[in-house]
Amino acid sequence: MPELPEVETTLRGIQPKTEGQHIQKLIVRNPKLRWPVEAHLTETLPGKKLSKISRRAKYLLLTLTDDKGRESHLILHLGMSGNLRVLPQNTPHQKHDHIDVLFDNGFMLRYHDPRRFGAFLWTDEPIMAHPLLTHLAPEPLSEEFNTDQLFQHMKGKTSAIKAIIMNNRYAVGVGNIYANESLFLSGIHPQTPANKLTRAQTDSLVSNIKQVLAKAIEQGGTTLKDFLTPDGKPGYFKQELNVYGRQGEACPVCATPIVRITQNQRASYFCPQCQPKPKG
DNA sequence: AACGGCACCTGGTCGC
DNA sequence: TGCGACCAGGTGCCGT
Q1: Residue A278: per-residue pLDDT
Q2: What is the pTM of this model?
Q3: CA atom of A44 to C1′ atom of C6, Å
Q4: Please, what is the average pLDDT of chain A?
Q5: Neighbours of A39 (CB within 10 A)
């Protein structure tokens, strides 16, 4: 499910009933996620206060504080199929409900993930020094993600622009859906070598990435099949999609049929008229 | 150093 | 109805 807007939607949904609450119990039904959920967490976490929830790229960062004021962190990732919901503690678990974090207020945070590509990691080291977080590009909705820095990165890069904006080193939060949509809005063919983009194209792309992500957040993310917000509602951005999943349909701008190709084992969708193939 | 491909999983859909 | 092939919102890691 989750690109940045879905993670942000999840964050906003779980915050009200969990932030500031004390952890009472941790239940791990299946520790086999992308990395094993450490067994000691069922003893380590109870008693700590969930003092703050934040987001870095597609990671959710849960700051925990113990009774001596010492901080530690949970690093959560939803992978391809994960979601988090806040539920009353007596809610029966279903298939793929792998982890419950129970709080003192009677609610729990439930992690559900059929494909188990997600992560549930804990660290008491400085959070931003964590190896999963150090190499990440700036937040896409911040000033630090801008034309200058992306254009700089693209110099000498022969890989396709779509691969670049989906690479955590150069842009974060942009998954397959929003990569395709941003490139469409900027009229850039997804296979264009990064070093062939003009500065004006780069400027347009940066701007459209920001706009697409911001608008998707406003709409509660994109629900393709199984993404639900923590309230159990789907995201409404799907109706805004111009090209993703629309092969054969008319381009909303020029009515040319949308084309699907495979790039780096991922589907790319584009309008061959609005996004002309680069020369050479 | 840069790049492309693989792996990790389950489940839904499609064609035969 | 069953079965195999293929597809899916991510990303760290490995080999070239």
Answers
A1: 82
A2: 0.97
A3: 43
A4: 95
A5: 10
Which one from A17, A48, A56, A58 is the annotated catalytic residue? Answer: A58
CA-based torsion, A145, A172, A3, A121: positive or negative? negative
Contacts 24+ apart (CB under 8 A), A103-109: A103/A17, A103/A18, A103/A21, A103/A22, A103/A23, A103/A24, A103/A50, A104/A21, A104/A22, A104/A23, A104/A24, A105/A17, A105/A21, A107/A17, A107/A18, A107/A21, A109/A14, A109/A18, A109/A84, A109/A85
More confident: A232 or A36: A36
8-state DSSP, A275 = S
Looking at residues A154-162, what average pLDDT do you find? 95
Q: Chain B positions under 7 Å from a protein CB?
A: 2-12
Longest CA–CA span in chain A (Å) reads 63
Which nucleotide across the nucleic acid strands is nearest to A244, CA versus C1'? Answer: C9
> Which listed residue (A2, A5, A140, A190) is catalytic?
A2
Q: Tokens at residue A88, please?
A: 């009353």
pLDDT in tens, A191-211: 999 999 999 999 999 999 999
Q: Which nucleotide is nearest to A262 (CA to C1')?
A: C7
pLDDT of A1 above 70? no
Burial of A139 (0-12, 13-18, 19+ CB in 10 A): middle
